[in-house]
Each structure stands twice: as structure tokens, then as C-alpha cells.
């Protein structure tokens, strides 16, 4: 028998009392949040018991105490050059039992494994990472937004009256300034007159006389009149600019910015907190690379205290919330290998099989291979639904892309009463869809006309306004009916603005087409989800082979056929295991999908 060495905190205290009864379960099919790797509790006596009891209680004497696990390794083969190392830790917070001073029982976990992640992911929030400086303001994305949904009728009346009054005043005042300037010129020019002289021998010749005297009073009056008209015009322009500013604030509030975070950044920060790297072709490449999460907002964009990460009361708050939501949204899963957190659509973890199934029957007594079909996984009604934001009228008025439904039903039916296609599957995305501003409304075009006049007028006196460009700059912003939101939003960014085809990029239909269609039992895009399942296949298994399965649940048989392992129950001391596995096998073509949007 291969030598097995147990190291507790780097020391060999002997093997646990119940080592021969230990069973390690790895469950890929029914992966629960409590962990994919389950190891029965270890019972320690003797020196190991004394060491552990002292370690657990040293928290009152300056030690780490009960809330930090103890390193635990299992070495296979020569301890100085082992052929395999199981690297884990003892968790004292899960079903720890102490029997006097004689024995202690505690759980064994895989270091940085799935169980470790799930146990710890809910213990950290994005808010705490921000407080600790792991997330900074540099990690936030500024998402532009504008407020819409102001009553159009009143807007048109106000704008029309404003244009009329302003135009009338400008025309009249320009005319009056012109008249005043003419009077000034007239008052500043001396009078020129003519007279007749007397000559005896010639007809009388005209004599020109020049009065070089200027009427000072009239000249000053003309100057004051011009200055008064100019002052009045300037005052009117200032008043009009103030009026336009007020109109903009009431009718077309200025573009503001709400803070958010890219999904990719949130993954990276979460993994970095646990000392891991993040790798994902799903998240780190287009289009998802440009997806930004905007947490719910209780203040105007740019106001003090606004943050770009989810806070208390949000639909996601902890790292665990985030990972679970991302798994459901993208029909994805994760693996942790060599301190790297991989996140991909659940069928994209394919690697070349490294384990070969022995040729045993799972029904040893009858020497038969029994199997089952995966019909229990059939979903007759598959729904994908984005959430409402009850504070944002845009998500209530425009349902484009929010809901998708795929109904699986038979092509041919003899008796509908006996049809057994059943089960409901619903992907409830807890975020609401954003809506990008792609053009100008009638009101905005009227405002743009008014703004162009004001920009031209103020430009005549230098330092003109830019109201017209402010209206154009509203394009590409997020439309909101209020500064506040009741749920987080997801938007697709394109540079500093939103992608204009926002709903097409994020539609529930596209979520199905990209990530969820692989769950369909009816063939869709050349893929189906029909399998044969082989359950409780008994096999001989070494610890090295078990280590291979931990890293890769794909396997082959002697003929090279490939299989996917669902679950392994491994007893290392006995060198045996029970394996559940499956393989693709189409057992019906009598299915079709009806798409409803």
C-alpha cells in the first residue's frame, strides 16, 4: 500500500482516528453553495488533539484562535518527494466538536477550493473593499445621464412664447440702436449753409458759410441714448441667458454622471482580495467587457457620497451575491486552479480528458450497465427576465428586450393529456435595463433653435454661450426619469457614452442566444442537452487519479469515448470510488421551441 503522511501545521502528528472511514465527495452536477468538495469530519486524538485544542483557545492569549484554520496536507508516497499533495486546511467553525480533552472533530477543506470560496465569498463586500482601499475612485466609470419625461405640452408653450418675445425684443432693440447711432452721427457733424454776395459787373455768386459750432447738449444726449440702448440690450441678453439656463434646468436638465463599475473590474477586485488572479474569455472580451453595473442611486449624480459599488440594500452586496448573480446571468460556472479564478459559460471548461474509466459494470450482480436519461432536467418553459426599476419611467414604458420566453413542446402528439414535458426555469436578472438617448425630441429641437439664437446673440458681444452644443451632447447618455433609482442598472459603454443599440446588446433574447440556449433539449444552433447518465459506477482509484479528477472532470473509456463526470465519492484509504457520469445522447427529435418576446 502506498505510504500516506498527514501534516498538521507542517508537523506529523499521526493519522486521524477515523482516516479509514473518510469519504471525499466531489459534486459537479448539483454544485451547492456550501461547496463542491465535501470531506467528512476528521477525528484527532493524542498529540494532534492537544495541539488543536490549544490552538483553538489561544485566541484569548494573543493567538489567532478559532476563526483561522490550521494548514493540513496529505502526502502520498515518500514524504521527502511525494507523488501527490492534498493541500487544505482544518475549518474550526463548521461542526467542530470537542470530547473533553480526549478528542476533537473538525472539517477538512480544500485550500482555495470551491468550498473555501463559498464559505468566504459572503464575508466580504465591495463596500468593505472600498473602505480598505482595495477599490478606489479610479475604478469607477462615469456614466452620463439626462432626465426626460417632462410634460411636452407646457414645454412647447413656454418655448414658443420665449422665442416670440425674444425675437421681437431683439428686432425692435436693434432698430432703436440703429436710430440712436444715426442721431449721434448727426449731432456730431457741424452745419454747412450758403449765402449771396453783391458784384456790380457780374451776376451774384454763391458764398459758402460754415458754422463750426456743435450743439453739445444734443451730442451728449445722443451718446447717452446709444449707451442706454446698448446697456438695455446687454441687460436683456443677460436676462435671456438666465432664462435659457432656467428653461434648460426645468425642461432639459444638464447632463450629469452616475458612477458605476465594469463587471470585469468587480471580478478582478473580488479575486485580488483573496490573493487570486482573474481570467475569463466571457467577461474580459467584447461585448461583456464594456458592460457596466450602476448601483441603485439615492442622490443626484456627482453629489457628495455617491459611489460606484453596490451598497447595503442593493440587489447584490457581498462577493457571494455577485458571483451567484453572474453565474445565473451568463449560465456560467467557475474553477479555481493554481490560484487563478476562471469564469466561463458552463460548457466552456473543456480540457483534454486525463482520466480513463475502468471497464466495470455498475450492476455487478447482474453484470449489466444500467443507465438513466436526464429527463428530470427538462424545462418546458424557460424565462429570462430583467427587473423593473419602478423609479424610472423608461423601464415601465419601454419593454423592449426585457422579457424572453422559450417554450419546448412536442412536434407530433397523439394524446395531449399524456404529454410529460414539464418544469419551469426562470432566470431572474436583478438589474434593470438602461435606455440610451439616440436623437433629439421635438422639444429639444425647438430648444436647439432657441439656443442657436442666443448663442449667436451673445457671440456678438464676445464670450458667447454654447447652449446648442449642450443639447447635442445629450445624445449617447442614459435616459432617466429621475435622478434616483430603486434597482441597479446594466449599460453597455462605448467610449465615454452609451452604445446606441443598448437594448439590442442587452436583450433577454440575446442573453438566451449567447449563453442559455445550451440548456435546450430541442436542438438549437446545433446543440442539444440530452444525455445518458451512468450512476454509481464502482472503480478502483488512486489518490493521483482522484487529483486528476479534481482538476478536470472529463474522462474517456478504453475506446476513446468521452464522458463528463457528475460526482465522485472517493475513499482514499480503500482506494475505491463510486462515479456518476454522463455523455451526449440524443434520444428524441420530437421537440420544438416556440420563442415569445
Search tags:
597 residues, alpha+beta, 3 domains, 13 helices, 30 strands, elongated
What does this structure look like?
The protein is an alpha+beta fold and 597 residues long. It folds into three domains: 4-121; 124-190 and 213-348 and 376-518, no CATH class; 531-596, no CATH class. It contains 13 helices and 30 strands. A hairpin with a 5-residue loop joins strand 27 and strand 28. It is elongated. The model is unreliable at 32-36 and 194-200 (pLDDT under 50).
Q: Brief overview, please?
A:
With 597 residues, the protein is of the alpha+beta class.
Ranges where pLDDT stays below 50 over 5 or more residues in a row are 32-36, 194-200
How many strands, what sense, and barrel or not for the largest sheet? Answer: 8 strands, mixed
Shape: elongated
**Amount of beta strand:** 25-35%
- The overall pLDDT, averaged over residues, is 83
What's the total number of strands?
30
Q: Specify the structural class.
A: alpha+beta
* Distance linking N and C termini: 62 Å
Helix proportion of residues, in percent? 25-40%
Number of domains: 3
Radius of gyration: 39 Å
Number of helices: 13
